[in-house]
Amino acid sequence: MALALHILANDRNISGVPEDARTLDDAALARRIAAAGAAVDSAAETELYRRLAPRVRLYGLRHLRDRHAAHDLMQQVLLMTLERLRAGKLREPERIASFVLGMCRMVVLEIRRGTWRRETLLATYGDMPEAVEAPEPMAVDATGSPGACRRSPSASARWWS
Description:
Blueprint lengths: L1 H8 L9 H5 L2 H11 L5 H23 L2 H21 L8 H30 L12 E3 L8 E3 L1 H8 L1
Antiparallel strand pairs: 1-2
Helix pairs in contact: 1-4, 3-4, 3-5, 4-5, 4-6, 5-6
């Protein structure tokens, strides 16, 4: 995640990326990341992130219409993409752009579903008074020792009567 934030902050600055990573196409970068496995290929990941981040951000702006949500989408989709590449779970590296677009679509749908659920629940239960009464306040024992709390005498009387 720190790598993603660093790249995002410097997405216009490619001086830290070796020349060989800049000349490779997206599929070659994806294959290089997958081949590295547990040993992270930072140069390839940085370059792939630099190339794909603007596309994902624009997709998010168009479909979510909120720049913060678009930024979150970008982080989430690219992080999932890098994780899948590292684990070797991407079958066709030549179609990395299509994979990322599909991930964008699925994440946006999930965001919309969650928003719809929250709005429905709020509309249904948002104006209801609390269903549970507030508990009686606890009285602290005169000794002041930790854990020496007890119910107020009026609550105890109601409990046992």
